[in-house]
Structure formats: C-alpha cells, structure tokens
Amino acid sequence: MKRLILALVVGGALFTAAWGAAADITVNDGHVGAGSGTVSGYTVTNVHWVISGNQVTDVEFDISPDASTVNAKTNQEATWKSCSAPGSVGEWTCDLTDQGAQGVLSLAVVAAN
C-alpha cells in the first residue's frame, strides 16, 4: 500500500510539473491567412554549351522575364550551380567545369526574381 501511495505522489508531482511548464508557453501576436496570386514561369532560350576538349566548361542562355537569381544543373544527380549575368539583361552563364561532357544529360534551370 505504501508503494501505491508513493507512486501516486510521484506521478502527481510529475504531472503538476509538466502542467506548469506547458502553462508557461506563450505565442506572440502575428498574422496568418490565405490568399491567391498569379505564379508564372520563365522561358529559357538560346542555350549554348561551351566545350573545351572533352570538358563542358559553361552553359550560356537567355531567360525571360529577367530574374535576380538563377541556378542550373545538367542531370538529376548533379548539384545546382549558381549562375551569373555578366552580359546584358536576361543573359546568364553557369560554370560547369567539374562535369565532363558525358555528365551532360539534360539542363534544368530554376529562377526567381
């Protein structure tokens, strides 16, 4: 009987401590909601592969509408490469020097403005 009473006392103390800790959690005021908007894509044109020997060194392309951030990769297993816009608006270049010509299976481009 003493064990039962001791177990109830310990269990009650643990429950009270947990309840007190949970009661101390606060949530700051904020905003939530739902809405709708138009999401449109980008068009990639004028793709040009730069090859030196058997090495693909770069890929150059135009993207429209203009974007502020562009990344590309050449196949599903490849890592995304940051691209730069050294020329006029909409022209982008991506450095691919770590991939051989055999590694180029496709071109995937992601862009954001």
Description:
The chain has a domain of 70 residues: Immunoglobulin-like, CATH 2.60.40. The protein has a six-stranded antiparallel β-sheet with strand order 1-2-5-4-3-6, with no helix packed on it. Strand 3 and strand 4 form a beta hairpin. It contains one helix and six strands; from the N terminus they run αββββββ. The chain is α+β, with helices and mostly antiparallel strands and 113 residues long. 19% of the residues lie in helices and 39% in strands.
Give a quick summary of the entry.
The chain has one helix at residues 2-23; strands spanning 43-52, 55-64, 69-73, 81-84, 91-100, 108-112. With 113 residues, the chain is an alpha+beta fold. The longest helix is centred in the N-terminal third of the chain and has 22 residues, at 2-23.
Task: Give me the Rg, rounded.
Answer: 29 Å
**Approximate helicity band:** 10-25%
> What is the succession of H and E elements?
HEEEEEE
Strand order of the largest sheet: 1-2-5-4-3-6
**Biggest β-sheet description:** 6 strands, antiparallel
Total helix count?
1
Which fold does the CATH topology of the domain at 43-112 refer to? Immunoglobulin-like
Class derived from helix and strand content: alpha+beta
Q: If classified by CATH, what would the architecture of the domain at 43-112 be?
A: Sandwich
The quaternary organization reads as: single chain
